Amino acid sequence: MKDLIKPIIIFLLAKESAAVLRKYKPKIVAITGTVGKTSTKDAVYAALSEFEYARKSPKSFNSELGVPLTILDEPNPAGDLLGWVKVLMEGLLLIILPNHYPKWLVLEVGTDRPGDIAAVTKWLKPDVVIVTKLSKVPVHVENFPNPEDLVREKGNLVRALKPGGTLILNADDEMVMEYKNLTEERVVTFGTEGAYEIQYENSLPSGIKFEVEGQSIVLNGVLGRQNIQHIAAALAVIKMLGEDLGAAAKSFAEESPAPGRMRIVEGMNGSTIIDDTYNSSPVAVEEALNTLTSLPRENRRIAVLGDMLELGRYSVDEHRRLGKLARKSANMLVTVGPRSRAMESKYHFADSREAGKYLKDIIKEGDIVLVKGSQGMRMERVVEALMKNPKDKKKLLVRQDKEWENR
To answer: What residue ranges define each of the domains in the chain, with the CATH number in brackets?
Structure first.
C-alpha cells in the first residue's frame, strides 16, 4: 500500500470495526505482552470454543490492520488496492445485513511503535484483557525511547477495559503484575509454580505433562514451561466464566501444536528438533535455552540461534549475554546473522541456508537441536534442512505461504 492510502484504509477499517462491534456486541478477550500472545490466543480460543461460538485472530493479526481484519473476518490483501476495496465492501455488508456473528472474539493486540495500542483502544473496549509476559529488553524497543515507554504503551489496553471487565495477569512476572494499578476492575492471576514433567519416547522428548487448577494436562509435540502459562491463562478465563474446567482441559490435547513455537519436529538420522523459529527476543531465547538445559545430558544439545532484531542500542549486549547462556546450555552453539556474532560462537554463518547445509552433515542419532531466531532471519530453513520428512514442511513449519516464498 502506498503511504498516502494506508492511513485512509486504517481509518475506514476502524470505523467499520467499531460499527460491527456495536451491532453484534460480542464479548472480547484482548491479549498483549512481549512474548506468548499468539500461543495464549490459541489456548483461549480452544477452551472457549468448547462452550461458545468464538473467533480468534488468524496468524498474528495484532496491528492496526490485523485487529480490524479479524473483527471483519477478512484476509490481508497486502499491496492489492482492489483487494482492500473488496474488504471494505464486505465490511459494509456485515454492518447492513444480518450475520451469524461470533459470541466471543479472541484478539491479539501488539505494538511496533508509540501510539499503536492507544489508537486501537479508541474504539476497542475489551471485556477481558490478558497480559502474558514482559521483557526488560522487548522486541520493537528500537522504535521507543526506552523499554519503559513500550511497557506503558501496552498498558493502554488495560486502561481500555470495559466497566465490569476482568484483567488477567501472569503472576510469575513482576513487571506484568504492575498493571493491576492501572484499573479498578477485577484482577485475576495465573502462574506456573507447580512442577512439570517432560515426556519421552525412545529416550527422546515428545511433550510435557503438568497440572493446572486440578486438571492433568498432556501436550504432545511441544516443550517449554511457557506452554503451561498459555494454558493457565486460558483456564483462568474459563474459571472466571464458571464453565467446566475439565471440558476445557480436554480441548488442549486435541489441538495441533502451533508451528515454530517450541514444536518438536522429527529430525534426520534419529535426531530431534525443537522448532522455535516463529520469532525471537531476549526473554524468549532465555526460556528456550532453559528448556534445552533441562534435557538429558547424554544427548548432544545443539543451539542454533539467529539474530534478534529490533533491539536497537541493546542489541550487542543482549546477544553477548545470551551467547554466554547458550554456551552453558548447549554442547554446541551455532549462530546466524551479523548481530549474533556478538555471541562469539565457533560456528557462525551469514544466513540460515548456510547453517542448515553445515548442520545437515554433522547431525547424528540422539542429537537435540534447538532452532530460534527473529522472523527476518528465516530460521525455519534450518529446520527444513534437518527434518526427517521435508515434504511435510507446509503443515509443520512457519512462513510456508506464498507471501513468504520469495522473501
So the answer is: 6-193+229-241 (3.40.1190.10), 263-397 (3.90.190.20)
